Amino acid sequence: MSYDVALADRIRRRIGERPDLVEKEMFGGLAFLVDGRMSVGVAGSELMVRVGTDAHDEYVSRPGARIMDFTSRPMRGWITVSAEGFETDEDLDVWIDQGIATAEAAAGG
Question: Does pTM surpass 0.90?
Fold first, then answer.
């Protein structure tokens, strides 16, 4: 699977420069890791977001969101978002901010 390069560029611009940010090809797409933990990523034309189990129900109810399910096993705490869920930069920022906060918390930061 390839990934939407324009969406990846959009995420890069929104995240900005961080010394703890690494990009890595995973899940057939591109993942943005913070402190070694995936925060957000792109698979095809969709956004992948680490939201955490506590915030899962809140985020899965947002427009365009659904439970991530790559292996026919739903992954609680991970969300896949279609384009309708991140049309504006403000919408995308919500997802990126949650993904980064969840990754930082998982890393103990």
Answer: yes
